[in-house]
Write a structure and sequence with these properties.
The protein is α/β, with parallel strands linked by helices. It is built from 27 helices and 39 strands. Strands 1-2-3-4-5-6-8-7 form an eight-stranded mixed sheet, with helices on both faces. Strands 11-12-10-9-13-14-15 form a seven-stranded mixed sheet, with helices on both faces. β27, α18 and β28 form a beta-alpha-beta unit. The chain is flat and about 105 Å long. The relative contact order is 0.06.
């Protein structure tokens, strides 16, 4: 039973982390049950490390020490341990103190922090990871500063503090270095944390892709089976490391399997006399747990689990077991991994054919799609740098592989087939960083599953619609395609050719019909095609060379599509390929070729790094993706800015705190343990308007009109003309049902309209009518901001009524929004012409609209308790705008895991 001073064990502080060398460790709070682990850990620490920790010889812990270091209240005294297997490898603790360094309780906001890392694990980044986690725990409990005493000779620990990126002060007192760290995250501390995250996760994938030895567990004695197939793939690829077969049923004393004279076989991985870096598991699901334990005890660094038939609980247990030994998992239900680097030549998949060396990285969540993509790329002449097919992605995910490819010098283009995105917030952050240097092309399966991941996938359901996710991925620089065929088409164009400088496309060929189809396809993709050049059916390769050279030399051309049909004369495919290559080499402009059944041309062109397509439409779609990516990169180089307007941030914070936590309550510190009144709270219209006004967003006054007399008095105060509208939920924003009456110019007209309204739609208490002043006519729009726990805060914009509600014509951007984002948001919807003078109408004040979007973005970014804002309608006139109605909902701040300490996902 807990005493009044004890806190419940903070389960949410538990986390799996990737360390600097790519291994994993478990971070969790230390409990009273950890006494034996602590003593064992301390015995394995060197005398020097103990001296650095306690500033004196300290050979062993007393019973009092053990109790002190294992009993915590998780508020003023907190201890965390990093664990591998079932053993501590490092500990950290903080003790809250006052300004004089004496033990204290809240509201004291400083704490003394100290680390101890087992010598065998120093240099792995354990202390840096623990500092991130203990700092997050401290902030949650109201601690704002850490102090630490470090001996001058303890340079490693001093570096942990100084490299963390927090604001800090240091002094030299009584023979030791005194450090004070402000724990509020800074841009530098976030950059340091994310840099370490990238290096650690990239290293964990590299260990899977470049192992020095591989054991295939579950290799049958006869031909056939998944294990045997993987072993065949390894040997046929020419893998440069050591290979072992494991079959628990081979007779004792057997050291080789039939047909595998060069591969030693063992009954268990424990019998292998040398270290094993990677184990491929091809055993029944019921045997996986025992195999994982054996691999962990043998020191295996990573697992590829081909086995299937795991439910969610079994997958979680599998991942927990592997990570407890420091291993990462590809799978279960994986297809495998490939690395074509000459010094590795790893093919640990079920595919017998190893791709050629290339500069494309391929990631899939489906073995079947992986097979199709590998075959398609091979057939089209594109090699790979590496390939990862993760199946149910219980551990290693697309995020991890992106971290690896981000700075992989052997990968220029990233292709991904995704069926679920476990951490969309992190994915958009990572993919944007990668896309700034190399294109990322994605095809998404299961897009219309309502946010639920496919069966077996270790990922949470997403609330966001497919349209929202699509917009946010495009904002991050992702090139989205609809089919895996388009994935290959686009990948080839980007891998083989330079990026175009613009959308101006020249077309030439020896068949007018193909040129016309190309022209039409360019228009459909919103490119700017130039008049086609018909070379006629008699054109020889030399004619293609002259025409292509002229097109590429033309400064008004950004790219060229060449179309071709078989010649009347007998010309070889290689001759045409040579002609096109000579013309395009060194031009700096991309070329794509669409041809009709010219035998051997695909291979001849791919050998010269010119992409070939069987139809003009496919060539143009691929080229259009290259145009979009080039444009995104140019714009991303100047991302815009988030304006620093003069707003009342403190007043808004106080208003939010009063609404959520009670009158007079101060704003709560981020992450603090508080008791909110409801789970979520909708502000009254008056409170919502007052909150928005603190950020310069004025909401037009709406006077309640429960009866005709009150309506008349309200109209007199507001001045005619006025509008009478219902606010009942079922009639809100439904002018088509007669719930909105405009341009009322007199008391007599108002009384008549009021009577008509109540007679047609119901009693006043049901309709909740209000009176508002008329505003200048314009275009009705809607602005929304909502929080999605998996994505973050999303700002949405569209035209009010049928365009957004019926046609789904809404554009989205992640908050915070820059001025460039706001301008793009206004122009991204299909109905945007309505804002810019469609059919002779006066253009409306889009500058005022962009300013409003920026203010809403700033409001919700500053105050995470604001989980929903809806402004509808926002009438945008030729000069200025008016917000006629606003709704705001508050809730306790959702967890922002992507801004917290590094941790692996655990579904």
């Amino acid at each position: 039973m807990q005493t009044p001073t004890e806190r419940a064990y903070p389960t949410h502080w538990e986390a799996d982390v990737v360390l600097r060398d790519g291994g994993t460790a478990r971070v969790r709070p230390i409990t009273a049950e950890d006494a034996d682990r602590l003593v064992s850990f301390y015995e394995q620490v060197s005398d020097e490390s103990k001296y650095y920790r306690f500033f004196a010889p300290y050979p062993r812990l007393s019973d009092r020490d053990v109790r002190r270091f294992t009993h915590h209240d998780y508020v003023d005294r907190v201890g965390l341990a990093a664990i591998v297997g079932d053993e501590f490898i490092a500990t950290v603790r903080y003790d809250r103190i006052d300004d004089l360094g004496r033990p204290a309780s809240a509201p004291a906001d400083r704490a003394e922090v100290a680390f101890l890392v087992q010598d065998a694990h120093q240099g792995r980044g354990v202390a840096s990871a623990l500092l991130e986690h203990i700092a997050a725990c401290a902030r949650e409990r109201g601690v704002r500063r850490f102090t630490a005493e470090v001996l001058p000779a303890n340079t490693k620990m001093a570096k942990v503090f100084t490299d963390a990126g927090y604001s800090q002060r240091r002094s030299f007192e009584d023979g030791s270095v005194h450090l004070t760290l402000d724990l509020e995250p800074t841009e530098r501390s976030l950059a340091v944390m994310r840099g370490r995250e990238q290096r650690a996760e990239a290293r964990s994938v590299q260990r899977l892709l470049a192992p020095g030895s591989v054991a295939v567990i579950g290799v049958s004695r006869a031909r056939g089976g998944a294990g045997r197939a993987v072993l065949d793939s390894l040997t046929s690829a020419g893998y440069t490391g050591r290979v072992y077969a494991v079959n628990q049923r081979v007779p004792e004393g057997t050291d080789r399997l039939p047909g595998l004279p060069d591969v030693p076989v063992h009954r268990t991985v424990r019998e292998i006399p040398e270290p094993v870096d990677l184990a491929v598991l091809a055993v029944p699901a019921t045997e996986v747990d025992a195999v994982v334990a054996a691999c962990g005890e043998h020191g295996v660094q990573g697992l590829v689990v081909l086995s299937a038939d795991f439910d969610r609980a079994a997958q979680r247990a599998l991942v927990r077991a592997a990570r407890s030994y420091g291993m990462r998992i590809v799978g279960p239900n994986a297809f495998g991994v490939i690395n074509t680097a000459p010094d590795v030549r790893l093919n640990a998949t079920l595919a017998s054919q190893t791709p050629e060396r290339g500069r494309v990285g391929l990631f899939t969540q489906s073995g079947a799609i992986g097979i199709a993509l590998l075959a398609g790329l091979h057939r089209r002449g594109s090699g790979l740098s590496s390939f990862v097919s993760v199946g149910n992605r219980a551990d290693v995910s697309g995020n991890d592989v992106l971290q690896f490819w981000d700075d992989d010098p052997d990968t220029d283009v990233v292709l991904m087939y995704l069926e679920s995105i476990g951490n969309p917030r992190k994915f958009t952050r990572l993919v944007r960083r990668t896309a700034l240097r190399k294109p990322v092309v994605v095809v998404r399966g299961a897009r219309h599953s309502g946010g639920a991941p496919p069966p077996g996938h270790a990922a949470p359901a997403m609330r966001a619609s497919d349209a929202t996710v699509t917009d946010l991925l495009r904002q991050a620089g992702v090139l989205l395609v609809d089919t895996y065929t388009e994935l290959v088409d686009t990948g080839l164009q980007l891998a083989f050719q330079p990026l175009p400088a613009g959308p101006r496309i020249a077309t030439l060929g020896n068949a007018e019909s193909l040129c016309l189809l190309t022209y039409d396809a360019c228009l459909a993709q919103r490119l700017a095609p130039r008049d086609p050049v018909d070379l006629t059916a008699t054109a020889a390769p030399a004619d293609f060379h002259r025409a292509l050279t002229a097109a590429l030399d033309d400064p008004a051309t950004d790219a060229v599509v060449v179309t071709a049909i078989p010649w009347v004369e007998d010309h070889g495919a290689a001759e045409l390929a040579d002609a096109l290559h000579r013309a395009s080499a060194g031009s700096g402009k991309p070329v794509a070729v669409a041809h009709a059944a010219i035998e051997g041309l695909d291979a001849a062109l791919s050998a010269r790094r010119i992409p070939a397509y069987p139809a003009p439409e496919r060539a143009v779609r691929a080229l259009a993706q290259a145009v979009r990516y080039a444009q995104w990169r140019r714009e991303a180089a100047e991302p815009g800015r988030v304006p620093e307007d003069d707003v009342d941030e403190a007043g808004a914070a106080a208003a939010v705190a009063r609404a959520l936590y009670g009158t007079g309550a101060p704003p709560q510190p981020a992450g603090a343990t508080v008791t909110a009144r409801p789970h979520s709270l909708a502000l009254t219209p008056a409170d919502a308007a007052a909150l928005l006004a603190r950020y310069g967003i004025e909401v037009l006054t709406a006077r309640p009109a429960p009866d005709p007399g009150t309506a008349v008095r309200a109209a007199a105060e507001l001045s005619y003309p006025v509008a009478l509208k219902t606010t009942a939920p079922h009639l809100r924003h439904r002018a088509d049902l007669g719930g909105v009456r405009l341009d009322i110019v007199s008391e007599q007209q108002l009384r008549r309209v009021y009577a008509e309204l109540t007679e047609a739609l119901g009693r006043p208490e049901e309709l909740r009518p209000v009176v508002q002043a008329m505003v200048p006519r314009g275009v009705d729009t809607v602005v929304r901001a909502t929080v999605d726990p998996s994505i973050g805060t999303v700002l949405a914009f569209g035209l009010a009524g049928p365009p957004s509600e019926l046609l789904g014509d809404v554009a989205h951007r992640l908050v915070p929004v820059t001025d460039r984002d706001a301008a793009q948001l206004v122009r991204a919807i299909r109905s945007a012409p309505m804002l810019f003078g469609w059919r002779g109408a006066r253009p409306v004040d889009t500058a005022a609209l962009e300013e409003l979007l920026l203010k809403v973005s700033r409001l919700v970014d500053d105050h995470p308790e604001i989980v929903s804002v809806e402004l509808e309608p926002v009438v945008v006139a030729p000069r200025g705008l008016a917000v006629l109605s606003a709704a705001v909902r508050l809730a306790p701040p959702p967890a922002t895991t992507d801004l917290g300490p590094r941790r692996l996902s655990a579904w």
